[in-house]
Amino acid sequence: MDPLETGLYPDIVATGSLISVMELTAGKKNLDLGRVYSHYASGPGQVTTAELDSSRGRISIQIGSQSRTFYVAIQGQGFTWAEGATDDLDNLIEALTSWRAGISVDDFAGRFPYMTPGRLARAHESGDPALTQWNWLRTAEEFSEERSLVEAAYVDGRFDGLFPTLSHGTLRLSSAQRLQKAQEVCITPLSGGSYRVENVRLPVPKIVDSLREAFTAASKSLTNDA
Predict the structure, then answer these.
(1) Residue in 40, 43, 38, 3 with CA at minimum distance from that of residue 21
(2) What pTM did the predictor assign?
(3) What is the pLDDT of residue 155?
(4) What is each CA distance from 75 to 41, 118, 170, in whole angstroms?
């Protein structure tokens, strides 16, 4: 973590930390940020970073070292609600309090254009991130080599509602996005046209000869793990 560039942040120098200047600014505007804290117990990070919680993710702020810039990220469980950067602390405080108050993703991006919603933000807001993820994997050029596997799994119909991801050619299907207790099954193409099916909570993977068998094994493993 870089030390504070005093010439860029006289307000932070005057108050002692980013947390203090954020609280002071919010107080002058009669806005409620909730509890503002830093995960750094000491050192430059305690002065130059801040975090606060909301019902839609943790908000992290840190300052730039080359220019007066406040970098912001709002992280959900395994996805980004929004991220951006601004040099206007007053406006940033308004943005953070608006987010905590429940402003919609579209209204947030429109009112604070320096904040860019994450790819799945609107889908999580509408309650259907899995379908959005399926459509992205089925159409994004970067997944062209795995498209036939993804398309076949989507059309199969037994994995509706599961959240799909791709990693090194393996299709992962999860009952909940990045939660420790989520059910998850992985389907990996092997040489010779066979497939490995692995439930992360069951001890032994299964090798099958066809994609149809792979989907059946994956569906059964999820049922047995329920």
Answers:
(1) 38
(2) 0.74
(3) 95
(4) 21, 9, 25
